[in-house]
Amino acid sequence: MKVLIQKDYDNMSEWAARHIIDAINSHKEARPYVLGLPTGSSPIGVYQRLVAANKRGEVSFRNVVTFNMDEYVGLPRTHHESYWYFMHDNLFDHIDIPKENINILNGLAEDPEEECRRYEEKIASYGGIDLFMGGSGVDGHIAFNEPFTSLNSRTGLRSLTEDTRIVNARFFDNDPEQVPKQALSVGVATVTDAREVLLLISGHNKARALAHCVEGGVSQQWTISALQMHENAVIVCDEAACGELKVDSYRYFKDVYRDEIL
Q: Of the listed 71, 115, 120, 139, which one is catalytic?
């Protein structure tokens, strides 16, 4: 596991965006480059930089296929807090990706289990995901794989904890009751099957999650800890997220990866 401690959110976002751009541009195979994408506040800075780079002609998404991590159950695409809406508003409507290359779980599917099975099959049909970018909840969950979700889990229906609904209430007029109680989400194993995983962690409120992810044992209590077992996992974080790392850990990562700090 590589941990890159950047000065702040902007530097974290800049490094991650540049990494994705370089990965897409260096992809020489005829098949599309397959990118897994998250929602939430963490990736917004990355998406802004990807849009700007696309408009400058530095990267094209014409040969990129995307799979999003999750979607709320029961929200129509037109709802301003659906993840379909979020992704189009923050990224897809502003880049040259073909619409047919965008894959987002259908939170209104009549048969959620079949929708999730189909999603896994479609990922497999492209040969798997090349790079899966993600974020972390304050309790260390990745996608909507809440604490104690199996680390071998696949895409499926997830019930959201009260804590997650309270955290996400800021997007729903600060009313947790407006936050859906369920979501469709890729599994932990769906993420870790990707050839590379890029995790964004920023802010003091994520410090405990980062410490457990990096220094704790691999445990389904902290589902992001599964990245310890991934041979090509990169965590990009800001200084604010490092508040609970041991001093020796902090110094180690700052020293070993000093050439990749912006």
A: 139
Residue in 19, 71, 115, 141 annotated catalytic: 141
Characterise 79 by phi-psi region: left (phi > 0), alpha (psi -120 to 50), beta (else): beta
What range does the domain containing 7 cover? Answer: 2-260
Q: Which pLDDT score is estimated for 24?
A: 98
User: Which DSSP state fits 179?
Assistant: S
Q: What is the pLDDT of residues 199-229, one digit of tens each?
A: 999 999 999 999 999 999 999 999 999 999 9
pLDDT for 186 beyond 90 = yes
DSSP state of 151: T
User: Which CATH number goes with the domain that contains 74?
Assistant: 3.40.50.1360
The count of domains in the chain is 1
Out of 115, 120, 146, 238, pick the active-site residue: 146
Q: Is 139 a catalytic residue?
A: yes
The pTM score is 0.94
Q: Are 3 and 227 in contact (CB under 8 A)?
A: no
Once rounded to an integer, what is the mean pLDDT over residues 105-125?
Answer: 97
Classified as helix, coil or strand, 66 is strand
70 included as an active-site residue: yes
CA angle, residues 207, 22, 33, in degrees to nearest 5: 95
> Which residues, 6 or more positions from 70, have their beta carbon under 8 angstroms from its beta carbon?
39, 83, 105, 143, 144, 158, 183, 184, 185, 186
Neighbours of 63 (CB within 10 A): 15
Q: How far is CA 1 from CA 142, 146, 165, 236, 251, in A?
A: 16, 22, 30, 11, 15
Is residue 226 within 8 Å of residue 186, measured between CB atoms? no
Catalytic residue among 19, 70, 71, 193: 70
